[in-house]
Amino acid sequence: MLQSALMNVMVKAARRAGRSLKRDLGEIENLQVSLKGPANFVSLADKRAEEMLLADLTKARPGYGFIGEEGGVRIGDDKTHTWIVDPLDGTTNFLHGIPQFAISIGLQREGTLIAGVIYNPANDELYTAERGKGAFLNDQRLRVAGRRQLGDCVIACGLPHIGRGDHELSRREMTEIQNRVAGLRRFGAASLDMAFVAAGRLDGYWERNLQPWDMAAGQIIVREAGGTVSGIEGNDDALKSGNVVCGNEYIHAELVKILKPLGK
Ligand code: IPD
Ligand code: CA
Ligand code: CA
Ligand code: CA
């Protein structure tokens, strides 16, 4: 796979921040964990990784804007391009030593996602996509799974935790989906849930109350793997609404059909 200059920048930044996360994973007790809200943890690992990503991406593309979970918004001179970055997606997993977490870097040009990288340093899985060029896991081209019957499918979701989201709605959604699928999963890192859909490991995924950095890279990676991504109502508003559903076109449509009326 020939890597573009842009992808080179993104992959190098993700790998450097990934080495930092890996070091910190070995020293969880020294990471000065604090709470941004109930069960909303942030640690030195999140902050160090974000600092590196901001430094590397800004050095390579000085004018681009940057939105990172821990640093908020930075406005660049080039108003057309914006990085959307989660330096550590799956902080709760990370702080428990569960190796399901990732760095997520999306790039938007004039409101359209044009590139994405999701990197799990724990197993060295690197997911990449550029608009029109396909999606990859390391060197391997990705394609979403082809199953068309929900009864054959493994679907993942996100679950609201203490202090966040509508727990009653979540229970209704889970019950409806659970009754129709081969398996329901909750892995705990939205970016990787989407990467798994792109890789055909999962047939579909939905979650509410996400932030743009949880799913920017995931969206382009799923789409470039031939999948469909939308808000839970079926509109192209996932980044704005924070609610996302994805899968191949058939499973995506099935999930929207079940989930949309429940949210009313
Ligand atoms: C979280 C993870 C998790 C999702 C949460 C997100 P963070 O991101 O993606 O899977 O359920 O809603 O906030 O805080 O670990 O970067
Ligand atoms: Ca967080
Ligand atoms: Ca996140
Ligand atoms: Ca995060």
UniProtKB/TrEMBL annotation:
Q: Write out the entry's keywords from A to Z.
A: Hydrolase, Magnesium, Metal-binding
**Which Pfam families does the record match to this protein?**
Inositol_P
Lineage top rank: taxon: Bacteria
One of its GO biological process terms is: signal transduction
User: Which reactions does this protein catalyse?
Assistant: a myo-inositol phosphate + H2O = myo-inositol + phosphate
- GO MF terms, alphabetically ordered: inositol monophosphate 1-phosphatase activity; metal ion binding
Residues binding Mg(2+) are E69, D86, L88, D89, D214
Its Enzyme Commission number(s) read 3.1.3.25
What positions belong to coiled-coil segments?
Answer: none
Q: Which cofactor does it need?
A: Mg(2+)
Please indicate if the UniProt record lists NAD as a keyword.
no
Family affiliation: Belongs to the inositol monophosphatase superfamily.
Q: What is this protein called?
A: Inositol-1-monophosphatase
Organism encoding this protein: Bradyrhizobium sediminis
